[in-house]
Write a structure and sequence with these properties.
136 residues; mainly alpha; 6 helices; 65% helix; elongated
Amino acid sequence: MASSTNQGAPLTAGAISKAWLSDGAAAAGMDWAIWVLWASSLLNAAYFLPILWRAWLRPVPAAWPEEHIAARGWRETAWLLLLPPLATAIMTLAAAVFAQSPGSPLAWAKLIAEREYRHQPLGQHDNAANVLRSAR
């Protein structure tokens, strides 16, 4: 799940954040930033998809290696190994589903941006160069 988010797969928080960044880059006339986001998605896919394929989709070996794992009921691993990936997957889905809610990271970013740039006349921050010049 986390690798899908890094790649910006649909219905993940990564897709929402990349969409907002792309919209902002297009509005600011910074087309190169959109290409950087696409390149980031492709590099993440090139890195993570082979790992996922080896872990989940590669055919099972004919002879399983000799292992001595204590029986744990229906699960194969200890709770301390199982809980972090489950929590990450749940939080990733929650961040995507509740992205428009008042307490989401997106709402905080909008609030901060509104408070930071509210005093500026409309059009003064029409591109990144003007934003950087006004910050100095």
